[in-house]
Amino acid sequence: MEMKKINKTDVQDILTGFENTPVYLHVEITSGMYASHLDDNVFNAGTFLRNIQVKFIQATIRGGNRSKEHRVGLKLDNGGWVYVLGLTHYIEGENGEFIMHGFNNEGKLASALEISSQPFFK
Q: What InterPro entries does the entry give (predicted)?
């Protein structure tokens, strides 16, 4: 199955279906793996979180009006937030996981937010 460009209404409906339920998150943000090896002027930054169990009480998707990128905010039941920018595509996986990725102009992964009721493979 191929990833689809984000449609805010469809994605919001899927996100809402995970509210008030314990879920596992995978969050990944990258400026390009080893980008500084190719260009000394590039500052390489990134984040990788996997199998973080949370429960969110509200999910919101915004953006995509003038640009193709979207942002998703998850308000956690403990008052915290998870916020991911730069999302462009999504797919519902075969095992019920919901996968959102952001691809840069070169088609390389720049951001990821994945949600599942089961832990992701290690």
A: DUF1806, YojF_sf
82-95 pLDDT per residue, tens: 999 999 999 999 88
Helices (H), 1-122: 8-16, 35-38
Quick check: 101 and 87 in contact, CB under 8 A?
yes
Give phi and psi for 13, each to the nearest 5.
-60, -40
0.85 exceeded by pTM: yes
- What are phi and psi for residue 45, nearest 5 degrees? -135, 150
For CA atoms 8, 84, 90, 77, give the dihedral sign.
negative
Strand partners, 48: 28
pLDDT tens, 10-48? 999 999 999 999 999 999 998 765 554 566 677 778 899
> How big is the CA angle at 103 (ends 88 and 99), to the nearest 5 degrees?
55
How far apart (Å, rounded) are the C-alpha atoms in residues 51 and 27?
9
List of residues 6+ apart from 105 with CB closer than 8 A: none
